[in-house]
What does this fold into?
Amino acid sequence: MQPHAQQPMHTDVLVIGAGPAGLYQAFQLGLLGVSFEVVDALPMAGGQCAALYPDKPIYDIPGIPAINGQALTQQLLAQCSPFMRMLPGHSDLPHAPREHLHLGQVIDALQPPANAQDTFEITSTQGLTWRSRAVVIAGGVGAFVPREWPIPGVTNLHQLSNLHHHLPEASDTRAPPWAGQHLMVAGGGDEALTAVVQLANQPAPLAPAHITLVHRRHAFTATPELNEQVQTLMAQGRVTFVAGIPMAAQVTGERIEHITLTTAEGQPTTLHVDHLLVRLGLSPRMGPITQWGMAMERKQLLVNSSTMATSLPGAYAIGDICTYPGKLRLVACGFHEATLAAHACLAQLYPQACGPLQYTTSSEALLKRLGKA
Amino acid sequence: MQPHAQQPMHTDVLVIGAGPAGLYQAFQLGLLGVSFEVVDALPMAGGQCAALYPDKPIYDIPGIPAINGQALTQQLLAQCSPFMRMLPGHSDLPHAPREHLHLGQVIDALQPPANAQDTFEITSTQGLTWRSRAVVIAGGVGAFVPREWPIPGVTNLHQLSNLHHHLPEASDTRAPPWAGQHLMVAGGGDEALTAVVQLANQPAPLAPAHITLVHRRHAFTATPELNEQVQTLMAQGRVTFVAGIPMAAQVTGERIEHITLTTAEGQPTTLHVDHLLVRLGLSPRMGPITQWGMAMERKQLLVNSSTMATSLPGAYAIGDICTYPGKLRLVACGFHEATLAAHACLAQLYPQACGPLQYTTSSEALLKRLGKA
It folds into this structure.
């Protein structure tokens, strides 16, 4: 994607990370009447829950005997919905767009405020900018970003307009960019083979004219079912497979035009591509968060356990990215940390609004904010 | 009830309190392979959730958009069930008996261990004794015990065999002690009028022969519906009402035989009773916990926020009864505190078993304990 200039968005608190801790952070801020925006590098909410175990049951979420990562994400989004409304015409799935939620945004710069009246300025690689008086870093083990397919000599991978990583959403009926064209898919695991099977089986106007699958070895590392489905597509001539690694590419402007591979047998081969879909899985990357000058301990942000404040005034950290004496990297802990950080943000931003703790079973003010009064 | 001698029960950890924090404490201990027993003063699990807002929606339990106190209790019991099995032939309701759960037990004495190899000895007013190497106090705002009806001159209320506070469980089909006899009910609120309506409408062999309702004033403080139902029973002669306060009683052995009231009009009247049912609501009582010598701050037990350890070695405190810098009295916080206390108990009791944190999504050891392997 191409960076593009935008007006900065102003909010009380920018929450970096839309995993379970970040989503519950949004809920707690909303409940206290503090405005927020949430950003995440992934194209869907849920963080590690969504990226690593969407279908695996989790048994230790308090009060929920068993739930998988996707369902937990949906329940947290539903809980946040009074403060993070779904946009009209969308599903309740973790990738559906919502107010105050910015998906597919990798944060790359943070400029702390010059003084107590000033704001943080935070920008994403994708070109969005936020200004906020506080930041809650709920960054988990880092931003989940797609693993790149390194092509010797090509340094501007992020700027290529015909290089893709994600499949279109199931609910998206528009033609994908590669419809009717030649698509090269890179990868040999579940992610790559799922993409090949799904795209090859789309109806004609949406499907690529042809798919070339490239993996460094002849053997795939996907499930037997996917393996068999791809072998069938190859036998039918609908998918061409090349075992090889990229050696060079011809780039014209923002488009990659030809890719030269060295095959597993040591032969060079050059292929024309209209589009390239890289499906090598996701990898968590701490990125620039570690370079913002906050005190750290064993690669985690050191916080005050009563407020979740980092060493940088106005910046808080919760969930797997933070540490303090006794810290356990469990979802149940992130929920409590989000609650403490929300109250600390309220005390920082609206000290006059702090008062006795209120309860959702009885407080009219809270029920009104929740739309239940 | 009469105290009765019993063999002490031996366990790793005694959890005092079966509210949300205490139940999740049991789950976390079970998950770590640490044995426990849970006790509570109430006749059902759930603590404040069950006693104060069984039907009110709670909106801030992480990952649960809305749930009432009774349903939350049932979900926590279901989550605990691998470690706290229901006894055969019972429902999944909060008052159903379960392994390792002791309801209706008010803790009245705690004897700390003389040395690190020794155990705590904890006893209840009802005569049970536990020996454990650690204690987690999840006592909320105190033990919810029935308010007493003070009768001048009667000092042994707890020893009277025909003085009652609780109705039989709905699932209990045995004849209650007052079946076919004269029952006096004390109280003028929902609890008392509910009891009168429910007992008067039982089938003949279970119902009392007659009910006398005693309240200090002529007006009740119950809902209009209950008020009307009781007025109807009075008009039918099935219930006699006396506005008055107790002045004296004749006690023979462990039975109260006659009660003398001063009526609202200032007249003394003496009534024979077979059984007395006191229904003046529940009141939280901190009881002897505050006298065990643990450091306190504003009537709460001061704990180390990384382990939930009190100042008494081997004794931990979680939930509303504990305090530390930043403490918020919310259910979400109690869950995290239970998690920290479970890991601290493991480190105290089985230091050799401490290792890298394991997850229920992937650890075979945890899945085996949960019965999911």
Summary: Chain A touches chain B through 51 residues (CB under 8 Å). Chain A has a mean pLDDT of 93.
